[in-house]
Write a structure and sequence with these properties.
The protein is mostly helical. The chain has two helices and no strands. The longest helix has 24 residues, at 6-29.
Length: 85
């Protein structure tokens, strides 16, 4: 866990308070029907939760495909080599 100085914590608290004050002033400046519509949209967005990004690779692809020219060596046969007599 990161420790923050008293100054940093106080600065963050004042920033948060100022942002809330600006938001209240902005919401008070827009017409009531638009404000209620915005509040409903905001509530629905918060209920959805965070956006889950789509995977960036095709299904069935190995998690870390090798770079071109660096493919793994083919596996050796389990049988020992045959000796010539």
């Amino acid at each position: 866990m990161t420790k923050h100085s008293n100054f940093e914590r106080q600065r963050r608290e004042t920033e948060t308070a100022r942002i809330q004050e600006i938001e209240r002033a902005w919401q008070g400046s827009i017409p009531a029907p638009i404000a209620t519509e915005f509040a409903a949209t905001l509530k629905a967005a918060k209920a959805r939760g965070p956006h889950v990004p789509a995977p960036d690779m095709a299904p069935g692809t190995a998690p870390r495909p090798p770079r071109p020219g660096h493919e793994p060596k083919p596996k050796k046969d389990d049988a020992p080599p045959r000796r010539r007599s």
